[in-house]
Amino acid sequence: MNKPAIELIAFDADDTLWVNEPIYTEAQQACETILRPYLGQEVLHDRLYEFERKNLQIFGYGVKGFVLSMIETAIELSQGRVKGEEIQRIIDIGKEMLARPIEVLEGVRESLEALSKQYELMIITKGDLFDQESKIARSGLGDFFSKVEIVSEKTPQTYQEIVRRHHIDLRRFLMVGNSLKSDVLPLCEIGAHAVHIPFHTTWVHEQVAPQQLDGKQYWELNDIRELPGFLDVSLADTV
After folding, report:
1. Alpha-helical regions (H) of 36-147
2. For residue 121, which phi and psi values (nearest 5 degrees)?
């Protein structure tokens, strides 16, 4: 029997296994409603993203950093006039985000169940350690995965370290995710396989320019339910 082309499949979590970005979009809209008396909505939207991007290096990804960025935005753009009760409302938005039930995407559970019979499965996700561990536990999907890596950033170096630590053969390793920036391009750079499954909305920080994809070899599927059938054909035969 021929050895399968792929032995280990790693999945991104947020917006690949369960809904995430729409929760942030709703939270940002709620924050904009709170702060609208202080300035125009378009200005607020742009400045909030500026603070988020700057603070990623300090707070990292996740709800806590997002809420701190919203508070900082509120203080600066209101010139300190934001009220204590308005800050509290922003904090409450963050608490609601953390307590939000996990909405597993359609087809995920069935696909993982089918794939787990043939492949070793892994999660590689970035974000706050406590928050991501809680999501995995509450999703009910944790038993499908033999390995979980929660990282601060997804760079080629990050993936290389994961591969080295787990003694993974790059030729038999596949990354699946919704972000071209985080789940596809770094894998192309280190010579691994990647499958892109787009989500209907993408955080602006994860968007890439079309020219960044020139010459990059990866696969794109419309739905995770296509993945088991896609893998029935050797990746080497689809190049």
Report:
1. 41-59, 63-77, 84-99, 108-115, 129-139
2. -115, 150
Contacts of 238 (CB under 8 A, 6+ apart): 219
C-alpha distances in Å from residue 116, one per residue of 19, 38, 108, 222, 228:
22, 52, 12, 20, 10
Distance CA 189, CA 198 (A): 20
- Cα separation, 117 vs 115, in Å, equals 5
Render pLDDT for 68-104 as a digit per residue (tens, 0 to 9).
888 888 888 888 999 999 999 999 999 999 999 999 9
- The DSSP output letter for 171 is G
Is residue 182 within 8 A of residue 16, CB to CB? The reply is no
Q: Domains in the chain, please, with CATH? A: 8-18+104-238 (3.40.50.1000), 21-99 (1.10.150.240)
Q: What is the pTM of this model?
A: 0.87
With a cut of 70, list the residues of the chain below it in pLDDT.
1-4, 39-44, 201-211, 213, 234-239
Asked if 139 contacts 109 with a C-beta cutoff of 8 angstroms, the reply is no
Separation between Cα atoms, residue 168 and residue 222, nearest integer Å: 27
pLDDT in tens, 101-128: 999 999 999 999 999 999 999 999 998 8
Please choose, from the candidates 179, 180, 176, 237, the residue with its C-alpha nearest in 3D space to the C-alpha of residue 214.
180
Q: Are 9 and 176 in contact (CB under 8 A)?
A: yes
